[in-house]
Description:
Layout: H1 4-19, H2 23-36, H3 40-54, H4 57-70, H5 76-88, H6 93-103, H7 108-121, H8 124-132, H9 143-163, H10 167-177, H11 195-207, H12 211-221, H13 228-233, H14 237-247, H15 251-269, H16 290-309, H17 314-321
Helix pairs in contact: 1-2, 2-3, 3-4, 4-5, 5-6, 5-7, 6-7, 7-8, 7-9, 8-9, 9-10, 10-11, 11-12, 12-14, 14-15, 14-16, 15-16, 16-17
Amino acid sequence: SENAADTEARYLYATLLYGKGQFALGTEQYRKIVSETDDYKSLRALACAVYSHENDRETALEYMKKAASLAPISEKHITFETAFLMQKMSVNPDEIIEFIKSRGQNRDDITVELARAYNRKGDYESALNTLLGRVFVAAEGGEHYIADQYMYAYYLKGKEAYEKGNYELALESFNEAMTLPQSLGSGLWNKIKKVPYLYFSARCCEKLGRSDEAKAIYEGFKTFNFDFFSDMYLYTFVYYLARGLEALGEKDEAVRIAEARFNAWNKARGEETLGYFGTTPFFIGFIDEPSRARNIHFSYPLALLSEFLGTENAEKYKNCYKQDGYTLYIEDFTV
């Protein structure tokens, strides 16, 4: 039936099946609905289903784009989820920017996704202008979601200046990254998130002949512990600690720590566990196959440590983690 009430009832029935764990039956019902109607809610649900349970990422993106083309502009969650999936699938950032602007960005999370697209493009000025042009009200857990894009924009600005030999501007940029304006409504749950920017600041100080300041920063890395929270907020901390120890003349200790973490992560990469790799943050419906998510997650720190330890696998790990276009990865451009 093309009756709107009947379509809604069929959608709710499919969702009930899906929610009860009968994924195949629920997905079959969604497919029947979208083959007969232009129901954007069923298209959106089908996109989540084929991504999460059939591992068909390309088709999921097609469904999500069609859902967005049919959904009213007021359905902001459709805008957000489409932008999210486009980022994750490494769609050209210009296309994402155009998509978001065509539907409006008058919601905190959509604004952050617009900034993310600018950052992916390398346009840090537009990312900063986008973030600073809004007063955010962050929900619990959303503080870092906002702050990360702001800090990454300054990472890009500092990186550009450093590579051009403008170490004063680079140092200024990395310091700016660690000072969050009140309008972002965000903060840092743990100061360990500042470590990458402190590390790059130390590199700038070395270039500027301010070695005592650089050494003080590296010594400060020793005050952090390896624990649940350091792994949660900066699981690549060991890389910066190792580089800091190396700069302080403690190379043997740096290698010992780096090798221990490298071996642990390499083992974890192949473990068949759920937990973090079987769930998805907040209410996002696109869940990666656990082994794929695990491989991408651990390949990032493994790539950094491979470079530090001088092993031959750094490029292999880089190619792996770059399969996921959503996360913006901080890489060391100073070595």
